């Protein structure tokens, strides 16, 4: 799409069976996804199944919530940091990231701490979570096919939906001296969806250049995460991205993480190694071990950025 720097993929053919024409449209969509996943792991989706008015309401309500005084927000402080700190968190003072967020697991998860106010917030959060999960399953099945894996391979590998999580985020306005919202990173899960208000600031690294992912109404930004990169032995790339804060105003966004059950073992699949005579680029690991190392980055930010744990921790050097 002109000006947006990253491809926009129409998912409507996957919601209806429309004979040969539909198959052609699906193929076009899959070709675009294949290409962007092979290059940088980032694309947008439209006709994704999540209602626009629900996305707008979710953004509006999170804005109301984050503008409450601290004592209201702190009522939903996490009771535990495991498996992740569900509830409201602001980054520690020494963190380079200047944002606050509300983290939730799937509706009715025993870990969830829901805000009491605004009163309709919980219902909207739960509703949008369920929609994003359905879209996550669809995108997972498309990636499965793009990777040439046996039908339903990823779905069977990743059946447990209780580890998916979502963050409503608020980025504070930049100051004259610093504007980092979230430092450059890759996501540790399978697939992430982001939708954002009109402020902008999300950027993706493409051919060594930071490309702004400008807000486009009714689209969702998709980025491939580390689990897909490892399983595919780097055939598909985990997108490198960051958020830069705007000087004038706060930015509000949602990030939904289609994730993997913590006990699952992650390693390059034989289809991308043994079967094609390629050496594995990663050693295997248990997903929760990696998730915990990443969470430690956030709660106890290392003083040197090079000490932040990312997927290269498991890379096999050649
Ligand atoms: O807020 C955004 O646009 C992106 C958030 C993000 O990258 C993350 O939470 O991992
Ligand atoms: Fe991210």
Structural descriptors:
318 residues; alpha+beta; Jelly Rolls; globular; binds 2-oxoglutaric acid; binds fe (ii) ion; Iron_ascorbate_oxido_reductase; metal ion binding; iron
Summarize the structure.
InterPro entries: DIOX_N (IPR026992), IPNS-like_FE2OG_OXY (IPR044861), Iron_ascorbate_oxido_reductase (IPR050231), Oxoglu/Fe-dep_dioxygenase_dom (IPR005123). Helix content is 28%, strand content 21%.
Please tell me how large the radius of gyration is.
Answer: 19 Å
Per DSSP E runs of 2 or more residues, the count of β-strands stands at 14
Bound ligands, named by name, code or SMILES: 2-oxoglutaric acid, fe (ii) ion
Q: Give the low-pLDDT segments.
A: none
- The CATH level-2 architecture is identified as Sandwich
Fill in the CATH topology. Jelly Rolls
Q: Termini distance?
A: 38 Å
Largest sheet: 8 strands, mixed
Average pLDDT confidence is 94
Overall number of domains: 1
Strand content: 15-25%
Q: How are the strands of the biggest sheet laid out side by side? A: 1-2-10-7-12-5-4-3
Helix content: 25-40%
Which CATH C-level class is it?
Mainly Beta
Protein name: Fe2OG dioxygenase domain-containing protein
Family: Belongs to the iron/ascorbate-dependent oxidoreductase family.
InterPro entries: DIOX_N, IPNS-like_FE2OG_OXY, Iron_ascorbate_oxido_reductase, Oxoglu/Fe-dep_dioxygenase_dom
Pfam families: 2OG-FeII_Oxy, DIOX_N
